[in-house]
Write a structure and sequence with these properties.
The structure is a single chain. The chain has helices at about 20-25, 40-45, 55-60, 65-75, 80-90, 90-100, 110-115, 120-135, 160-170, 185-190, 200-210, 225-235, 260-275, 280, 300-310, 330-340, 410, 445, 450-470, 475; strands at about 150-155, 175, 215, 235-240, 245, 260, 290-295, 315-320, 345, 350-355, 360-375, 380-385, 390-395, 395-400, 405, 440. Helix 6 (about 90-100) runs antiparallel to helix 8. Helices cover about 35% and strands about 15% of the residues. By secondary structure, it is an alpha/beta fold. The longest helix has 18 residues, at about 450-470. The two termini are about 40 Å apart. Helix 15 links the parallel strand 7 and strand 8 (about 315-320). The chain has 3 domains: about 20-135, Fumarate Reductase Iron-sulfur Protein, Chain B, domain 2 (Orthogonal Bundle), CATH 1.10.1060; about 150-245 and about 405-475, FAD/NAD(P)-binding domain (3-Layer(bba) Sandwich); about 245-405, FAD/NAD(P)-binding domain, CATH 3.50.50. Keywords: 4Fe-4S, Iron, Iron-sulfur, Metal-binding, Oxidoreductase. It holds the Pfam family Fer4_20.
Length: about 475
Amino acid sequence: MAKQPMLKFVQIGRDMPVKRVADQRRTDFHEIYAEFADEKAKEQASRCSQCGVPYCQSHCPLHNNIPDWLRLTATGRLKEAYELSQATNTFPEVCGRICPQDRLCEGNCVIEQSGHGTVTIGAVEKYITDTAWDEGWVQPIDPAQERTESVGIIGAGPGGLAAADMLRRAGIQVTVYDRSDRAGGLMMYGIPGFKLEKDIVMRRNDLLAAGGVNFVLNCAVGVDISFEAIRAKHDAVIIATGVYKSRDLEMPGSGAKGVVRALDFLTASNRKSFGDAVEDYDNGALSAEGKRVVVIGGGDTAMDCVRTSIREGATSVKCLYRRDRANMPGSQREVQNAEEEGVVFEWLRAPKGFADKDGAVSGVMVQKMRLGAPDVTGRQSPEVIEGADYVEDADLVIKALGFEPEDLPKLWDTEALEVTRWGTVKAEFTSGATALDGVYAVGDIVRGASLVVWAIRDGRDCAQAILERFSLPEAVAAQ
C-alpha cells in the first residue's frame, strides 16, 4: 500500500521559514523570512488535510487551487504545482510575500480551526514560484496567434498588469500607460523592500515587456496625453489607476514642517533603494534618520512606515492608534514584527493637533481614548477621555490614514465618467464595465483602498470580459 503523503498535521507541527533576528533585519531592507528548503516545503505542504470543502480556497479572492498544489508540492511534483498556482494567479510570487494570509487562506484553514496550526500556505506558494523562476519554468508570453484588437491600460499596478498578462496571452495588443518612471504601482514604490524586494517586481515587468506588453511610462493622463486620445487609439480601455490621494488631518499645526504623508515617505525610501536622487530625502525632510518618529494610523501602511523608520535609523518610533490592538485593521503578524524591531504602539490614542517650534513639528498633541458603543460596522467607537491629553515629542510625524480616489472626471476632462459618492469609478461587478462604451475599471479605483490580491482578481475578471467582447473564448485566453 502506498504511503499516505498528506494529512500529516497531527504528527507534524506548523513551521514557518526562519525569520531573521530583529537586531539583524532592522538594519537593512531585505526580506525578513528565509526560503523554505525543498524537504521543509514538502513537509509543511503534507500537513494539508485535503478537506472536502477547502475554506482556504473559498476565502482566497483568486480562488487559488491551494489543496491541489500543496499535494503536488508534498509529492515532489513542483513544476506541476507551479503551473497550477499560476493558472489562477498572475503574480503568485508577490501574493506569497505580501498577502495577509492570516486574514485570508491561512486564517480559514480547517486544521487551524481544530487547533493544529494552519498550513503555511503563503510560504509554500512563495517557495513554489521562486523555484519556478530559478529553474527557468517562467517564460515570456508567446501567444498562439496575434490579434489586431488593442487595449490601453491606464495604471501599471497589480490590477492593470494582471489584465495585461491575460490579454497578451490571447494575442491582444496591449499598451500600459503610467505616470511613474517604473511599472508596478504601489508594489514598486509603496510597499517596502523588507516585504517585497524590488527585483521581484522588476523581473515580472521585464517578463511582460518581453511578452509584448508595451509600456508608456512618465505619462500622466490629462497632462501628457488625453483620456479621449487613449480611447481613440484602442478598442477598449481599462482604468487601473489605484487610489493615491492621502486622507488628511485638519487640525492645529498640521502644516508644520515635518508632518508628512505616508506615501511620500515610503516613495522616497523606495526610490533611494534604486539609487535615485531624492531631494527631500537627502535634505532630511522625508528621512527618519536620527529623529523621534510618530506614525498616526493602524493599517498596513502605518506598519510599513514604522518599520521603514526603524531601518532608516530613527532614535525612537511610536505608532498612535485610536482603538485597541484587537480592533486595528493592520496585520497582527506585522504588528508583532514591528514590536520585535523596536516599535512602540500607543493604543487608544488619537491626535488632537501638532506642537511646533519655529515652524517645525516638535510633538503631537494626543488625546487618550476609550472604546464605547459599536458603530454601524459593529466596531466599538473610540471616545475621548476628557482631561487626559498630553504631548508626544516628535521630530517627524507620518500620517498613515488611508487613501482616497483622485477626481478623475475633472483631471481627465471626462465628465461622462461616472463616479460614486466616494469618488470611486462606477463599474459593473466582475466585468469592470463602466457606462462609457469600451471603458472598464478595476482595482482600488473601483473598490477603494484594498489588497493587491483583489486588484489581481479584478484585472483578470476584466480581461476575460474584454476577451468575450472580442468574441474570444476563455479556452483561447488561457493558452
